[in-house]
Design brief:
Two copies of one chain form a homodimer.
Chain A (H helix, E strand, L loop, with lengths): L3 H11 L2 H11 L3 E2 H5 L6 H13 L3 E6 L2 E6 L2 H19 L3 H12 L2
Helix pairs in contact in A: 1-4, 1-5, 2-4
Chain B binds a DNA duplex (30 and 30 nucleotides) through helix 4.
Chain lengths: 111, 111
DNA sequence: TTTACATTCAACCAACAGGTTGAATATATT
DNA sequence: AATATATTCAACCTGTTGGTTGAATGTAAA
């Protein structure tokens, strides 16, 4: 299970369409910072910052070759987040079953 | 599939431990704003703002009874987010299979 | 060795997030 | 009618986000 802070970083990184697009691009293979930035309608520096956020969340790894930085997609945090959400959903759903909810509603109505 | 903006809102809402704790609290049944705020070490107003974020993400629904506002947890956006992540992960993983990655690495090496 | 390229660093800015306090509003209770 | 409770609204503050531009750094190519 991811530590809360790890989860925060993963979800924050994913909660931005530019960063999701970067991940999608990298899912088809390594690319340099410039390559990743090319399709976006913003400065290279802006994309570089987004990449930093993804690195902090360990969704992207960097391999330096001379002046080029090759970026690659790392699926592990996504796996962990998906697992956390699925487990949490199950747990929460179990606390919302029909009978329990009915009893709580009655309790609330009688207050 | 959730619209990108919906996904943004869901992930943003989930990327905060206070808001996750609020959802957890509500997963065991309805509660009023004051009840939800009680355990937190912050002002009622701060919690009220967090609830607004959760409402915007449709993770919480509000039912007003007199001066009391009863809040309830809505799992649907969580389901949608989990589904999106799972599908995306599968899609991205399929583009990262061993052969394709090998070919791309050779291509990169020969540049 | 000069020039071009890939990238970050640094400073700045506007908008937003997350918190505060104080007042306003609406409803209950006495 | 007066008071207490539940909640939001409004203004404010501080720190962060997401963007910009310009300069610095390191490496490759002419």
């Amino acid at each position: 299970m991811p530590t809360p802070q790890t989860l925060d970083r993963t979800l924050t990184a994913l909660a931005d369409p530019t960063r999701r697009a970067i991940l999608q691009r990298l899912s088809s293979g390594e690319a340099r910072v410039t390559d990743v930035a090319q399709p976006f309608n913003m400065s290279l520096n802006a994309v570089s910052k987004h990449i930093l956020v993804l690195e902090r969340a360990k969704l992207v790894k960097r391999r330096k070759v001379g002046r080029d930085h090759y970026l690659s997609y790392r699926p592990e945090p996504l796996d962990a987040a998906a697992k956390w959400i699925a487990e949490t959903r199950t747990f929460w759903a179990s606390r919302l079953d029909a009978l329990e909810q009915l009893l709580r509603d009655e309790d609330a109505a009688n207050r």
